[in-house]
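Quick one, C-alpha cells below. Sequence please?
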C-alpha cells in the first residue's frame, strides 16, 4: 500500500490560506443568509402594512371586504377602495420606494451617513419649483407643478455635480453645500408664501406639508415613469457601490470609473426624488432613516441593502400615513408632518453617534 502523498510548499501554503479564510467565509455566508431572511421579513411587513392601510379608515373594512372591493363587485366599498384608498396607497409605495433608494445611493456614493435627498437640497429645490408654479401659473396645465418641481430638482443635482468637479472638494463639502442650498430654497419658498394671495397660499402650504390625499392614477403613472426605470440600473450597480465604500482608490483599482459612477448615481437619485415629491409634496427624512434601519437589518452589502432601503421606505411612509389618519381622527395629518416628528430625533441621534465615533 502506497503512503499518502505529502503536499508540496505551494500546496501547504494554499491549505494554510484556506484554513485562515474559512472562518471569514463562513461568517460572510451566515451574514448573507441572515440578510436574506431579514429582507423577506421586510417584504412581509410591507405587504401587511399595505393591507392594513386599505382596511383602515372612517369606513373600516375587513381583509375579506378589501379583496372583494379590489375584485370590483360594483358596491360602494369597491368604489371607495378603488377611487380613494388604492391611489393613495400606490403613491405612498412609489414615494417610499424612491426616497429609500435615493437615500441609500446618496450615502453610498458620498460615503456620508447624513447624505440624503433632503440634506442635499434636492427635495427643497423641487418644493420651490412647485410653489413657483402654483403662484405664477395657478390655472395652467396640471403638469406645470410637477414639471417645475422636476426642473429645480435636476437643477439642484446639477449644482451638486458641479461641486464634484472642484479640485479638492470632498464629499463632506458636497453635503454641507447641499444643506446650504436646502436652506436657500426653503427661504425662497417662504418668501413666495409670504407674497402669495390667500387662495394660492393655502394650496402651497398644503403641498409643502407632504400629503398623499390628492394622488390620482395619472399622477401615479407619471411618478412611476420617473422612479421605476432607474431601479434596475441601481440594483445592477450594487457591487460597484460596495467597492466605492471601500475607497475611490480601491474601486479604481478594480476598474470602476468612480467619477462617472458618482455623477450618474446623483443624476438617477435626482430623477427618482423628483418623481417621489412632484405630486405628494416634500416628505423629509425617509431617505435618511430608511437606509440606516436597513443597514441594521441586512448588513452593509448593497445587493441586499438597496432593496431593503426601498422596502423600509415603503413601510415608513405607510406607517406615517396610518398614524396621521389615526391619531387625531377624523382629522388627517399630512404624512410629511409625521415623518418630520420621527425623523428629527433620529437625525440628532446620528449626529451624536458620529461625534462619539470621532472622539
Amino acid at each position: 500500500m502506497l503512503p499518502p502523498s505529502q503536499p508540496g510548499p505551494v500546496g501547504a501554503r494554499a491549505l494554510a490560506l484556506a484554513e485562515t479564510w474559512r472562518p471569514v467565509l463562513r461568517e460572510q455566508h451566515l451574514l448573507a443568509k441572515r440578510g436574506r431572511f431579514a429582507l423577506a421579513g421586510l417584504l412581509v411587513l410591507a405587504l401587511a402594512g399595505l393591507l392594513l392601510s386599505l382596511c383602515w379608515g372612517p369606513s373600516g373594512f375587513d381583509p375579506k371586504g378589501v379583496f372583494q372591493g379590489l375584485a370590483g363587485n360594483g358596491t360602494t366599498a369597491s368604489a371607495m377602495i378603488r377611487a380613494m384608498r388604492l391611489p393613495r396607497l400606490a403613491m405612498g409605495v412609489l414615494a417610499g420606494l424612491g426616497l429609500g433608494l435615493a437615500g441609500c445611493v446618496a450615502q453610498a456614493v458620498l460615503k456620508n451617513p447624513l447624505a440624503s435627498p433632503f440634506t442635499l437640497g434636492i427635495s427643497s429645490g423641487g418644493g420651490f419649483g412647485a410653489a413657483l408654479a402654483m403662484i405664477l401659473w395657478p390655472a395652467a396645465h396640471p403638469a406645470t407643478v410637477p414639471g417645475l418641481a422636476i426642473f429645480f430638482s435636476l437643477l439642484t443635482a446639477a449644482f451638486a455635480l458641479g461641486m464634484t468637479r472642484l479640485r479638492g472638494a470632498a464629499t463632506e463639502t458636497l453635503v454641507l453645500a447641499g444643506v446650504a442650498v436646502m436652506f436657500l430654497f426653503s427661504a425662497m419658498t417662504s418668501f413666495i408664501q409670504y407674497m402669495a394671495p390667500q387662495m394660492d397660499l393655502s394650496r402651497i402650504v398644503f403641498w409643502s406639508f407632504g400629503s398623499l390625499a390628492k394622488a390620482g392614477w395619472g399622477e401615479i403613472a407619471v411618478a412611476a415613469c420617473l422612479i421605476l426605470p432607474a431601479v434596475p440600473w441601481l440594483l445592477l450597480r450594487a457591487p460597484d457601490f460596495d467597492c466605492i465604500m471601500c475607497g475611490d482608490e480601491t474601486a479604481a483599482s478594480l476598474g470602476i470609473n468612480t467619477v462617472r459612477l458618482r455623477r450618474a448615481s446623483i443624476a438617477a437619485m435626482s430623477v427618482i426624488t423628483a418623481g417621489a415629491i412632484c405630486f405628494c409634496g416634500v416628505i423629509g427624512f425617509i431617505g435618511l432613516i430608511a437606509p440606516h434601519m436597513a443597514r441594521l437589518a441586512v448588513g452593509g452589502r448593497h445587493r441586499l441593502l438597496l432593496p431593503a432601503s426601498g422596502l423600509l421606505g415603503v413601510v415608513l411612509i405607510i406607517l406615517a400615513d396610518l398614524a396621521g389618519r389615526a391619531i387625531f381622527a377624523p382629522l388627517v395629518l399630512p404624512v410629511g408632518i409625521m415623518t418630520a416628528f420621527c425623523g428629527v430625533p433620529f437625525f440628532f441621534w446620528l449626529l451624536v453617534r458620529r461625534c462619539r465615533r470621532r472622539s
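The domain at 100-350 is CATH 1.10.3470.10 (ABC transporter involved in vitamin B12 uptake, BtuC). The radius of gyration is 23 Å.
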